[in-house]
Amino acid sequence: MFIAMLDNLDSLRRFVAVAESGSVRRAADVVGVTQPALTRTIRLLEEQVGAPLFERRSRGIHLTSLGGRVLIHARHLLREALLAETEIHALREGERGTVRIAAAPVWMYSILPQVVAQVHVQHPSLTITLGAMNYSDAVPLLQNGELDAFFGGFQRIEALPSFLVRRAMFPARLTVIARESHPILAHDGATATDLLKYSWLSYQSDLAYLDTVQDAVQAETGRRVVAAVQCESMLTVLEMLRQGDFLALLPSSSLRSHHGAGLTEVPTRLEPISFQSGPIYRRSLQSNLAFRNLLSLAADRVETLGLRKNG
Asked: In this structure, are residues 149 and 285 in contact, taking their beta carbons and an 8 Å threshold?
């Protein structure tokens, strides 16, 4: 019954509309049907699955636990159906449609701008949406169909659904970064005690960066590094590092473009922190010529920046 329910794409669209709006009335306006017709669709779905998908509350309707799981699968199936339709159009008229991409900072400001510009020249009918996001936020959106691809570091290697592909493009390292004239560079390998003498910046979108330093320094000194400034923009963090005696733990690849001018790695006695960086994308995009070109151009850009060799 559950499989039969998921085979009806029109019913799935109606179900997703209700889930996202929290109201049958508002969802009916979105999908262009009457409220009674939409209510009948939801009741039929609940009969097919054998349990309620929504619960009624004073402020609207909310998904049950089962409804939440069905929503994930419904979004995925609807996205796959759309990509399949786009592929059919592509074979007839050339690559078109929309590819939704999220990316971590280094990809956003150093790699993808040039790549996306080149893809647009080659495939002008294709629309690309590009947004900044970290790994932890992107993976759930990839799984439920709200994103098509994420470019960034794999700081955790976890099992992914079979419809997602993970592809490493270059090794990345987390390293302490400071301006080239920072006084800490007078040390031949900064100790944990040395690192405590200066103010730290935290790149807010992924506090795990600073957490790594905090744990290492506390293990040696019994004291924790505290962020003097937390910032959600990587480019702002890099500029602040140029302007003062701050320290930050960031991917070494953040220094591989003009945005890293005037900054350098700080040699420390901390254990190195390494991981892979690259795209995670929907497997169905492997048949999309424009996306394959995007991956190829991204790999070329990584090579040009020297990221594959240096991390």
From this structure: yes
What is the end-to-end Cα distance of the chain in Å, rounded? 50
DSSP bridge pairs for 83: none
The model's pLDDT over 23-37, given as tens digits with 9 standing for 90+, comes to 888 888 887 778 888
Rounded CA-CA distance 3/24 in Å is 24
Residue that is written with structure tokens 């179900």 in the block: 15
| Alpha helical stretches, state H, 196-286 | 208-221, 234-243
Q: Which two tokens stand for residue 221?
A: 């000194």
Q: 122-181: per-residue pLDDT in tens?
A: 888 888 999 998 888 898 888 877 888 999 988 777 788 888 899 999 998 888 999 999
- CA distances (Å), 105 to each of 180, 205, 233, 238, in order? 22, 10, 8, 11
CA dihedral (223, 228, 230, 236) positive or negative:
negative
Q: Find, among 50, 80, 27, 5, the residue nearest to 281 by Cα.
A: 80
Per-residue pLDDT of 189-246, as tens digits, reads 899 899 999 999 988 655 567 777 787 888 888 888 888 898 888 899 999 999 999 9
CA-to-CA separations, 148 to 12, 129, 302, in angstroms, rounded: 19, 10, 21
Q: How far apart are CA 234 and CA 231, in angstroms?
A: 8
